[in-house]
Design a protein that fits this description.
This protein is mainly alpha-helical. Strands 1-2 form a two-stranded antiparallel sheet. α2 runs parallel beside α4, α2 runs parallel beside α5 and α3 crosses α5. The longest helix is centred in the N-terminal third of the chain and has 30 residues. The chain is globular and about 60 Å long. The relative contact order is 0.16.
Length: about 240
C-alpha cells in the first residue's frame, strides 16, 4: 500500500460521510411509520442490503469503465464506454453539485415528503431503491477516482457502518459547520468538470484536485477553530 492508496481512501471516506448523511436521514424518515420495535431492525437490514447493492453497482460502473475500445465514432472522433461514462457521469456531478449548492445557499421551503410504510418488506425495498438513487453521485466519484476494488468496497462498507452508528453525530457536525458540506459540493462540481474534460481526451493529474480539497479542508478547520474562540480574542491583533 502506498500513499496514494491512503489518500484515495481518506478522500472517498470523507465525501461518503458528508454526502451520505442526507441519505441516512431520508431512510430514517421512511421507517418512522413502522412500529417502534421494528424501526431500528428494518433500517439496519435495509441499509445492509443497500450496501451490497451499492457495491454491485460500483463494480458494474468500474467494469464498464474498463472498456477502452471505441464505442462511438463520429467524424473522426471516437469515444469508448469509459469516455462516455466520464462525460455523462461528470455532467451528472456538475448538475447535482450546482443544484445542491444553490439549494444549500438559497434554501427553498418544500412540503414534507409522504412515504408509504405499510409492511417492513416494502420499506426495505424502498430503502434499497432510494439508496441506489441518492448514492449515484458518490458511486461515480468513487469509480472515477480509483479502480482499486479494495478501496471501493472498503469505503462503502466503512462509511455505511459509521453512518449507521453515528448518523446523528455526523449530521450535527455538518449542521454546525455547513462549510464542510459546501466544500464537498464544490468538490463535486470541480470533479464533474474534470471528468467531462477527461472523457474528451484531456488528462489532468487528480493530485491537483486532492491538493485543492486539502487546502479547502484546512481553511475550514482553521475557521472552525477560530470560531470557537471567545469574541474578545477574535479581534484583530489578539493572536500575536
Amino acid at each position: 500500500m502506498n500513499l496514494d492508496y491512503f489518500i484515495a481512501f481518506g478522500t472517498l471516506l470523507m465525501l461518503e460521510l458528508i454526502l451520505g448523511v442526507d441519505n441516512i436521514v431520508f431512510i430514517t424518515i421512511m421507517t418512522e411509520r413502522l412500529p417502534a420495535h421494528l424501526r431500528q431492525r428494518v433500517r439496519n437490514l435495509g441499509i445492509g442490503l443497500a450496501v451490497l447493492n451499492r457495491i454491485a453497482l460500483v463494480f458494474s460502473v468500474s467494469w464498464l469503465m474498463s472498456w477502452k475500445e471505441p464505442f462511438v465514432e463520429y467524424q473522426g472522433v471516437s469515444l469508448s464506454c469509459n469516455d462516455l461514462i466520464f462525460i455523462v457521469g461528470g455532467a451528472f456531478l456538475l448538475f447535482k453539485g450546482i443544484k445542491e449548492l444553490w439549494a444549500w445557499v438559497v434554501p427553498i421551503e418544500t412540503p414534507p415528503h409522504q412515504f408509504f410504510a405499510g409492511q417492513a418488506g416494502t420499506v426495505i425495498l424502498q430503502i434499497i431503491a432510494v439508496d441506489a438513487v441518492f448514492s449515484l453521485d458518490s458511486l461515480i466519484i468513487a469509480a472515477s477516482l480509483t479502480q482499486d476494488i479494495t478501496i471501493l468496497a472498503g469505503v462503502i462498507i466503512s462509511s455505511s457502518v459509521i453512518l449507521m452508528l453515528m448518523a446523528n453525530k455526523v449530521q450535527a457536525v455538518i449542521t454546525r459547520h455547513p462549510g464542510l458540506k459546501v466544500l464537498a459540493l464544490l468538490f463535486l462540481i470541480v470533479l464533474g468538470a474534470l471528468l467531462i474534460v477527461e472523457g474528451l481526451g484531456l488528462n489532468i493529474d487528480k493530485h491537483y484536485v486532492y491538493s485543492a480539497l486539502a487546502f479547502g479542508l484546512l481553511l475550514e478547520l482553521c475557521h472552525i477553530l477560530i470560531s470557537r474562540q471567545p469574541a474578545s480574542r477574535r479581534v484583530a491583533g489578539q493572536y500575536f
